[in-house]
Amino acid sequence: MSEHHHHHDHDHSELSETELRVRALETILTEKGYVEPAALDAIIQAYETKIGPHNGARVVAKAWADPAFKKALLEDGSKAIGTLGHVSRVGDHLVVVENTAQRHNMVVCTLCSCYPWEMLGLPPVWYKASPYRSRAVKDPRGVLADFDVTLPKDMEIRVWDSTAETRFLVLPMRPDGTEGWSEEQLAELVTRDSMIGTGFPKTPGAPS
Amino acid sequence: MNGVHDMGGMDGFGKVEAEPNEPMFHADWESRVLAMVRAMGAAGAFNIDTSRFYRETLPPHVYLSSSYYKKWFLGLEEMLIQKGYLTREEVAAGHAMQPAKALKHGKFGLANVERVMVRGKFARAAPAPAKFNIGDRVRAKNIHPTTHTRLPRYVRGHVGVVELNHGCHVFPDSAAMELGENPQWLYTVVFEGRDLWGADGDPTLKVSIDAFEPYLDPA
């Protein structure tokens, strides 16, 4: 009998303890009528399809191409992005910080993992992990070296620790050699890390 | 609380290792945890500050050795037990055994999904005028509450300059302990790297935090 005794859907011996505990919790929440499993599926699908760095890239590209939008964006990020239609879910507290020839900006959350989800999607593991969270505020150049990024020695480096519900998006410098490019072309150059401050945009013509 | 979560400036965690072509989730259960946290929060079982506090109160060795979503899971399970939404017996059995506790906003169903994808609003009406102006020098208080706070240890006692005023926001120190929203003025305060890390610190570094008014004294 024993080999016919377990559940039909999965062999539990192949599931991790964590996976079993997560399933048990979902079962309890469902049985108690707190959540509909289909609604959980829909949340996951929304995260997988609706948010991501393409939202931030579109904002950055528009700022590069449109000086009036850039000015508005730096004055009130949430309000300016709210005018863009499909990326209008950013909430009220987005601050856009501009990289210049004199200053490089970098964003961290030392206390947990605060990150502009609506602009960049869910954060990568490294952003949420101890090495980045511990070192970014003390040794940002060392952190940047881990990303093979080097800044000029005398450039100011500004680290924004996201300790409240404000969220920060870095506006990287527009790459040279992109004069006359459309916003769509420019958006292709904008990387996620360039909007966190741990990378630069792609260089025109370089292999991606 | 002075927990291991407050890790700004700590040494010894090693290199930042980025994973090329990282997937959004590394296992299906991670996505279920994310969805359960969002759903139960939206249903009114807890606020975002309380959920952070439960992750911070994980034992330090558990916090440091658990993956991100494992911490979310452990925090969620304990919080729901403590708030009376489920029992340890139910968790052990893997099934509901007790009647449900009413949720403030009711069962989380498909109709509520759109709502969790829109970021919450944290600005509130000001109960009093702001004490500080942009450009003011302020000292981060040397306080060590054993409950939730968003004032990181590495700035406590240090002097910085008010750079931005974000208006009045929900005060996490109160909200996390379910003592009400208690709105407070919120400022970006910028510190010189060498004031924080000493003469050997990077001379080109400036670090800012977003600080609630009760964290600050005039300097």
Low-confidence stretches of chain B: none
Strand content of chain B: 15-25%
Sheet having the most strands of chain A: 2 strands, parallel
What radius of gyration of chain A results from the CA coordinates?
21 Å
Q: Indicate the proportion of strand residues of chain A.
A: 5-15%
* Helical stretch tally of chain B: 8
Q: Any idea what the shape of chain A is?
A: globular
Q: Which strand order does the major sheet of chain B show?
A: 4-3-2-1-5
Oligomer: heterodimer
Provide an overview of this structure:
The complex is a heterodimer of chains A (208) and B (219). Chain A contains eleven helices and four strands; from the N terminus they run αααααββααααββαα. In chain A, 42% of the residues lie in helices and 11% in strands. In chain A, the strands form two sheets. Chain A has a two-stranded parallel sheet. In chain A, strands 2-3 form a two-stranded parallel sheet. With 208 residues, chain A is of the alpha/beta class. Chain B starts with 27 loop residues before the first helix and ends with a strand. Chain B has a five-stranded antiparallel sheet with strand order 4-3-2-1-5. The relative contact order of chain B is 0.14. The longest helix of chain B has 15 residues. Classes of the chains: A alpha/beta (208), B alpha+beta (219). Chains A and B meet through helix 1, helix 2, helix 7, helix 8 and helix 9 of A and helix 1, helix 4, strand 2, strand 3 and strand 4 of B.
